Amino acid sequence: MARDAIKEVRREQLIVATIDVIARKGFSELTLAEVAETAKLSTGIVNFYFKSKDVLLSATLAHMVGEYRRYWRANVAAATSPTAKLTAMLEGDFQRLVANRKTVTVWYAFWGETRWRPDFMTECQALSREFQAVASDLFRQLDTPDRDPMLIAKGFSAMSDGLWLDMLINPKETDRDTARRVVRAFLHGLYPEHFAADAAEASTSAA
Q1: Measured distance CA(16)–CA(38) in Å, rounded
Q2: Which CATH architecture has domain 58-206?
């Protein structure tokens, strides 16, 4: 394996370990030694790739943002109509790959630090604005002139964030399927001609 490829594998190994540690222990107890132990590498290797805990955390957030962006962008690109694209954004936010307890826990850990970390704030704001801009353009293609598509896009985005939180604190009441149904009810109320109210009718609505 080429040296650059090895470096990339090691970096990703350490980032994945960092995600695991944050999910288990939170930010306050995360140390480079704990990351090294989780990755089954030496602390010296961690220090070689990431000069400090702050650098490692920035790289971890950038990794999560990049993964999420590639995922939802690919889903949107694969759909063929505004309704189908918005449905893909909705469905993507509540797939197991994205909306699992570990990943959502880590997202909230980073969001909670944005007040004190301008670099975290910049990453999260850019992702949120991009998601909302794409959703706004799609809602504009469905909408009538008397509605503000950006306001609807903000609500659409905020519902996912809020439902992720509800899945963390009320897991017995809110699962991925319930979350999908909540957002579908919101979309159906605004666009009954485009979105089915019930998840069972989703494939028909998105066609």
Answers
A1: 9
A2: Orthogonal Bundle (1.10)
Q: Radius of gyration of the chain from Cα atoms?
A: 19
SS3 202: helix
What does the alpha-carbon distance between residue 171 and residue 165 come to, in Å, rounded to a whole number?
9
Chain centre to alpha carbon of residue 95? 11
Sign of the CA dihedral with 169 first, then 174, 177, and 181 last: negative
Q: State pLDDT tens for residues 76-111.
A: 999 999 999 999 999 999 999 999 999 999 999 999
Spatial CB neighbours of 122, under 8 Å, sequence gap ≥ 6:
none
CATH topology for the 1-51 domain: Arc Repressor Mutant, subunit A (1.10.10)
The model's pTM: 0.89
Domains in the chain: boundaries: 1-51, 58-206
Count CB-CB contacts under 10 A for residue 103: 18
